């Protein structure tokens, strides 16, 4: 069974939701990414929601094949759309694929993959 961990929340600005609601949402996002990444680990490094302004999330996806990152990101994006309420309201979601010292980042903005 693959390990699921959250390294930490580096920045957190609450809007109308409670800390409990925010933790539930980020935990669910981490679970969905883990279930769709064919990877060893998923780490939430930051989630920021600036009171009606820009919202951002940054995840490390560890152990997935970097050469397949675009396909994996597409599957993750599709699963997040189906499973996370208001997912398309996230202005900037970064998936940082890490494997054997190589990094490849995919940017998803309001449900659209920007690469």
Account of the protein in words:
This protein has 115 residues and is α+β, with helices and mostly antiparallel strands. The protein has a single domain (19-113), classed as Alpha-Beta Plaits (2-Layer Sandwich), CATH 3.30.70. It has helices at residues 19-35, 69-83; strands at residues 41-49, 55-62, 92-99, 102-109, 112-113. Strands 1-2-3-4-5 form a 5-stranded mixed β-sheet, with helices on one face. Strand 1 and strand 2 form a beta hairpin. Helix 1 packs across helix 2 (69-83). The N and C termini lie far apart (30 Å). The relative contact order is 0.18.
Secondary structure layout plus pairing:
Layout: H1 19-35, E1 41-49, E2 55-62, H2 69-83, E3 92-99, E4 102-109, E5 112-113
Parallel strand pairs: 2-3
Antiparallel strand pairs: 1-2, 3-4, 4-5
Helix pairs in contact: 1-2
């Amino acid at each position: 069974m693959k390990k699921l961990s959250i390294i930490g929340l580096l920045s957190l600005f609450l809007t109308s939701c409670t800390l409990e609601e925010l933790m539930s949402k980020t935990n669910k996002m981490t679970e969905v990414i883990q279930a769709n990444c064919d990877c060893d680990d998923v780490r939430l490094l930051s989630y920021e929601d600036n009171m009606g302004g820009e919202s951002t999330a940054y995840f490390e996806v560890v152990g997935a094949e970097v050469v397949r990152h675009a396909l994996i990101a597409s599957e993750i994006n599709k699963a997040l759309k189906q499973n996370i309420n208001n997912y398309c309201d996230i202005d900037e979601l970064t998936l940082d694929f890490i494997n054997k010292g190589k990094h490849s980042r995919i940017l998803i903005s309001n449900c659209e993959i920007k690469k």
